[in-house]
Structure formats: C-alpha cells, structure tokens
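Instructor's aside before we start: the two examples that follow are unrelated to each other. I chose them only because their records fit on one page, so don't look for a connection. First example below.
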Amino acid sequence: MTALPSDYAWMDDFFLGDAYCLAVIRDRGATEIIESLGGAERQSAIGIEGLAARADEEWNAELAGRPTMLAGFIETPAATLMMEHNGYLGTLDALMRPLSRGTTIVSHFTNVNALDRLTCWSDGVMALDMEPLLATEAVPVPAHWRPQAIECGLRLEDTPAHGDEAADAEFLAHLASGVFAFAERLSGVPVTVSMVEGSMRTALIPLPADR
C-alpha cells in the first residue's frame, strides 16, 4: 500500500521535540548498527521523553576521548529505527554512507533553528539530500521519485511556490506528515506512533572526526 500524508496525520499533533533525527535503517539489527558505529550500549528508554532524559544525562559523555551523542534503537522485522533527541548522527555521511552498503537508510532531521533535512543513502551512495521546508535539494530527488514527493505534499525546487498565505500555512501545518509519508515510500518501512512511544535500546555513538 502506498503511504499517504493522512497515514501520518498523528505527526501533525505528536511532539517528537523541537530538535530530533529519525533514521530508518533497513535490514540491520540494533546490535549490528551499534557495533558498526563503534557505540556503547546504555540503559533503555521509553519513548521520546525517556530518550530526551537519557540524552541529557549523557550530554558530556565521551568514548575513547571522542564526543558522543545518544541514540535510541527500535527494531522492527524489516528495519531498525535510530532516533535521537537534539542529535544529528543520522545526517552524517561519514556514518550513514558505509552503514548503507547493501541496504537503504532514510533519515529526517530538524532543529530549533527551523533547519530540516531529508536524506537517503542506498548501497553506499547518497541518493537524495533535500530541505523540505525550503524546497532546496543538495542532491536532487531522482526523477522517478519527484511525482511521489509532490503527491506527499512536498515542494521541490522546480515546483512554483504558492505565494498564498493560506496555502503556505496549510503546507507548514502538514509538512511533517508529508515528509514521513515520502520517507516511507523511499524506505518501504512504515513508522508508527507505537514505535516512537515504546521501549528502545540506547547507545552512545562517537562522533566521527570528519563530521
């Protein structure tokens, strides 16, 4: 079934936080991901609020003298969700590109400065890198995905701006649900509210030197 923004209507009201990163990593278990990223497992958390509390506790933690970020890991039969509060590990090419070899990773990041980023890596290649809010594309949406992005309510660089306050307000109100619907089309993995509200493993992940 093709994902639609209406499938993610819960995202329009659900609060993941002013700053988060959520990466869908296909065909990889949490243990494999943590080990591949050189991480160290920490106490589990419940939902985004629990993850935020753990992240605050581990804010200044280091591994082997390197700064770290805390990530939560939620396993599904098809993929693992890597979720961060006020983090950006899922945007880092130095981490995600090698991890994507043989599979696909789709991540969405946003922060308090209204920066956002939707990125897709496939088999070691960055296949897409866009800012949905500003309709800019560092790595353009491939031609075969562009109609689907528009179906999900996203604006692309080659689609005209509405220039209408009501239309712009509607776009902003439903941007999150559109991004998540398009992300599901890219990854083939649905994200549900029960996933992000449930129990998750957590691990400290060291930041790469070349970030």
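Example two begins here.
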Amino acid sequence: MARAAPGCHRKGPSPVARTGGAAEGRAEEGLAHLDALKARRGREEWEIHRLRAPLMAACGRLDEAIADAKSHPQGGGPYALEGLARLLAEAGRPEDAVALLDTDRLEHTWLLGPLLVELGRIEEAMSLLRTPRPQAPPQPPIGYSDCPPF
C-alpha cells in the first residue's frame, strides 16, 4: 500500500482501492482495504461501497457483487444502477444490464443504446437515441446583481 509523504495525511481510499486494484491483479487486496475502512469507521458510505462491485467481479464474484450493491441503502438509485449495468455489460451480460436501466433517464440512454444494438434491437436503440429530451430553462446566476452597490 502506498504511504503518504511525512507530514501528509491522505484522505479517502488508497490508490489500490481508488483505481480498483483489479488492473494490477490486486482485487483481493483492494477488498481487504475496503473492509478495514468499514471496520474503522463503523459504516461504509456509498462512495466507498461502490468500489466493491468491480473488485468483487475481478475476483469472480459478480453475482455476489450485484446483490451486495443492491442491498446498500443507496444501491437502488439511478447512478448506482448505471454502475451495475456497466459491470454486467463488461461481464458479458447485456440483457441483464438493459433490464436495470431506465429509458426515461438521459444518463442511462447513452449506455442503453449500444447495449440494445449489441442485443440486435437496432430499431429500439435508434428510437431511444433519437427521442428528444426536454431541455430545462437556464437558471439565472445566483448572487449576481447589476444594481449598486457592487
């Protein structure tokens, strides 16, 4: 594990956990580090918890990773589902990934379209990607005024 320089106090997960560790074949080490963080803090925030799924998948525990991520209080949110869908797609399970994604969320559209194409559902993908999304009106700047005093 990388150590901070003398006098420096690194916050957050180690480089192994932050980068997933799987690229270096160190997924088990990354999981052990996350377990130690959880034990020390007594809880595990979603930002740290979401690092578990790719590490568990790298260890061949994909189904356990998905169940674990879904069991977290924030695991059912749209961003969490997008991350799980990416993991499933990378594991060669595009139909499971498509089942998780919401066609009404713009964030999911960009992942969902290519997955539908991969599954041979070209027309559905084209329709989804061509559907215009409503644009929110621009918000006025906060704290700006052209009246004196400046």
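The radius of gyration is 20 Å.
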